[in-house]
Amino acid sequence: MTGVLRFSWELSGSGWATCRIADGGSEQKCFVSYCTDALSDLLHAVSGLYGTATDQRVSFDLEPAVERWRLQRRGVDVHIAIYRFSDLDKSWDAPDAEGALSWSSTQPRRVFGHVVMEAAAAVLGLHGEVGYREKWVQHPFPVAALQDLRRLHLRDDECLHEECQAGRDS
To answer: How far apart are CA 124 and CA 163, in angstroms?
Structure first.
């Protein structure tokens, strides 16, 4: 389904983040642990959609469950499929089909890239690098990964959002 895509990443406690993604039809929400560098991994996976790879995967540790996002570029669109596995130890390398499909949507890459970039920038703006590290504990804020996604998004997408237009002018 293609609709208005919303994405948020909010630090919700020491070593925890609340991740939400929603389109016009449904929403997926999970509580992500700091056991992996989850926001960095997501930014790198989305950036990978701007290269030659057409398939990216990123997994979030939910302690003990795992949520795996499979991102498949299909022309100018990205198909997002989120699978849930009950146990990290048994499912980290398991095929997607062994998980339960909990959410999916197909969106323009420019829209998906923008909402992920915007959410990460909002986290940085709210907490700063020091505050992020204090709340996320295990990993620093992924500044370079956010800058890389912003660069690729500005280079390859015809984004009409005001902040992207301002970025093109500078």
So the answer is: 16
